[in-house]
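We modelled the chain as a single entity of 220 amino acids. Its sequence is:
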Amino acid sequence: MSDLVRIWVVPVDAPAECDGILDENDRARAAAFLDERDRQRFTTAHGALRILAGRELGVAPEKLTWTPGRYGKPELVAPWSGLHTSLSHSGDLIAVAISTGRPVGVDIQGLAAGADVVGLAERFFPPDESAYVAAGRDAATRANRFARLWVRKEAVVKAAGGRLWPNLKIPVRGRDVVDCAEPPGTYRVAAVTVPDGYHAAVALAGPAPFAIQATGLASV
């Protein structure tokens, strides 16, 4: 049987009571945002992560604690350390991923309207991937191609717990199994279905296949 990763895609304006379940560290980080929308995005994202992880574990969300792991990725502390989590947000959407068996990474990105995606791909992606982006017939196609590749790279990096920039050269186009450069490791990555205007991907440690259970707002 394949491992299962659960993914929730949640609007920033989700009607979840998030303020009261954040810990002191998260509340301080939220308060540091000068823009109210950024503060709301952070609060909803981290609150949704707590709600969904707590539901999976049968634990009150406010009791959960994360700590930086070996490479800096937040990890749940004992006795909940067997549950792996990942969080991403872009624009008006938040993605939360939970895995009970293997380290997980999820990334969601809105299309970069007006951005120089060809220039970014040339700077950061392998030559064949930058050529693939540049060959798009119009700006919308090029933005789609860039975002589709970007989320796969970032999902792998989030599963690994490494830094993004040293890993943007890792090839992901047409690959279900990807080798992360720093820290080194092998990961399986898959696309996640999200609303138009966004791309998302999820990665699990190891090359073995996995199943995805994606859920929307109603489950928060």
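As a brief sanity check on the tokenised model: The first strand starts at residue 3 and ends at 11. Helices lie at 24-31, 36-57, 117-124, 127-134, 139-160.
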